[in-house]
Amino acid sequence: MQGGSMDNVHNLTPEQDIEQQAADWLLRLDAEHKPSKSEIDELTAWVQRSPAHKEQLQRLAQYWHCANLPAELSLAPSGSAPSEPGNGNLLSRLFSSGWRATATLGVALSIAGALTMNLLTSDTSGISGNGIYETRTGEQNSITLRDGSVIQLNTGSRIHVNFVDKQRTVSLIAGEVHFQVAKDKTRPFIVKAGEGLVRAVGTAFSVRLHPEAVKVVVDEGKVALATSLDSPNSKSGSSRDTAETVKRAVDRGYLVQGQTVEFVPEAGDGLGNEIQELKQDDLDQQLAWRTGMLLFSGEPLAEAIAEINRYTSLEIKIIDQQIADLKIGGHFKVGETEAMLQALEISFGIRVTRPNPDTVHLALK
User: Fold this and answer.
1) Burial grade of 70 (CB within 10 A; 0-12, 13-18, 19 or more)
2) 310 phi and psi angles, rounded to 5 deg
């Protein structure tokens, strides 16, 4: 959970995990002693990280009569049972056993009234502050920053946000992220990806970090690309990664709406690769992951499988090179790997075998 340190890691979790986190918070507060200042600060930061956190805490709070809450904050459904002293242990047993509480439990929660009023009724709007945010394999999530900018993280991504008075900096440590930047001409918005920099004022674009290049796609406005001359101060990917302000950089070029490039920051001249012009359909395909979809329109099977592997814990391998260049088309929902494998068998004549539970082999039928 987020505290005062800028180096806290915010693991953007799926709904079931958020629900468990909310339940854990209610359990921590369901105690005889009044919550400490540090607990209050931690819970406040947790609620402010995402609207989903606030919603889950509200939803779970509705299932019990909160005896210590002021009347205007009472969230208990009408007809719920009165509070029963000593039921805190029952609540603990229910959650530790993985059960879901119901409105008939009537368990009293010993939550400080003023604290809960502020957390559950204030408009946090999912505003997030400085720190590290990440998603695991197959997860996608978004955060809203204090300036109103929205950052959407794709599968297996990690960023570090560092906003200061004169500069807004986000370091992309791993993966792929889309940025919808709030306009502020007095404070540029800079994305650091390896030695590459993407600078914007008010625009929308995605950045994907590759080992040898930084892929940038612009779907609104204009961005400038540059190479950082600042010396890195920590090993990439470590929990101590910092997003420092950019002090020295060499301008390399720019992109406008509908353009993409595989930017090579270390290239001796220009951007290192040609700028590609994208038609609207191509742009939509490039950013389809933002709506939880993967779109293919004639890509080689090898390329499609490499993309699909980013979203699953399975290791899908092509063991028959006869099908590596097979052209693939279709749209698949992120996470529905089994449906994709069925489509390959039915529509493309591919044999799918499983040598072990974690591996899938593809070959010609």
Assistant:
1) exposed
2) -65, -20
Phi and psi at residue 58, to the nearest 5°: -60, -45
Mark the ranges of the chain whose per-residue pLDDT is less than 70: 1-17, 27, 29-34, 48-52, 55, 58-126, 231-245
Complete DSSP assignment for 91-159: HHHHHHTT----TT--------HHHHHHHHHS--TTEE-SEEEE--TT--EEEEETTS-EEEE-TT-EE
159, 198 contact by CB (below 8 A): no
Please give the pLDDT value at position 237.
42
| DSSP summary character for residue 83 | P
Q: What is the DSSP letter of 185?
A: T
The answer to whether residues 178 and 261 belong to one domain is: yes
Say if residue 249 is in the same domain as residue 298.
no
262 in any annotated domain: yes
**Closest CA relative to residue 60, chosen from 52, 68, 48:** 52
Tokens of 86: 């000593």
Both tokens of residue 213? 């290049």
Do 269 and 311 share a domain, yes or no? no
Predicted local distance difference test score (pLDDT) of residue 51:
62
% of the chain at pLDDT higher than 70: 67
117 belongs to a structural domain: yes
Q: 336: domain CATH number?
A: 3.55.50.30
pTM of the entire predicted model: 0.66
